[in-house]
Specification:
alpha/beta; Rossmann fold; seven-stranded mixed sheet; globular; binds guanosine-5'-triphosphate; binds magnesium ion
Length: 203
Amino acid sequence: MTLITTSDMKIKSIELEYVAGVTTKKLPDIKLPEIAFAGRSNVGKSSLINALILRKSFARTSSTPGKTQTMNFYNVNGELYLVDLPGYGYADVGRDFKASWGPMIERYLNGSANLKAIMLLLDVRRTPNADDIQMLRWIENAGYEPVVIVTKTDKLKRSQLPKAYKEIRETLGLSGETKMYPFSAVGRVGRDEIMDRIDEILS
Ligand code: GTP
Ligand code: MG
């Protein structure tokens, strides 16, 4: 892991420009490229977005799962949107929200003309479950090349990481071409590699 900033993208301005919830009829008509972040509740989607935009807590995070319940569109530099999606798999969110999560996300993934990539986040300590695998299939079926980000790498000992990566890769059935990006919000480790990938996707 390099500590030298490799990403050329400078963060000049950030704005939470659109918020879309389960009752939002019309999705924002977005003209800029979008990168979306999906994954189980509490995996660290909002924390990753904060790291990417170099802010401590611009996107709201919480130790309690189910924090983000809307799709939040962060305009970066007037150049692109980072889209924070509500997490899946959290049993305690209201029944109505749970029932509408799938259609809301599916409508977004299928309906957004400028969506360039969907990043799938996985907790390094957890074996991917059926929801994660379904999310991966959605991403693939929608025609996107999956980008897999393994979060909270600071939570394991360095020596435990290779086994955890292998288990995630095997459980998801990832092909050798799919690159996995290790990430820790603690010290923003792996941030620049992800930013470089975003640069690459947009160019
Ligand atoms: P929902 O909005 O509920 O779907 O969750 P989320 O995926 O947005 O997770 P969030 O970013 O809110 O992070 C959940 C909790 O995990 C918070 O307490 C974060 O501080 C913590 N967290 C996120 N990333 C990391 C990480 O890399 N390392 C450690 N140690 N904690 C992290
Ligand atoms: Mg969140």
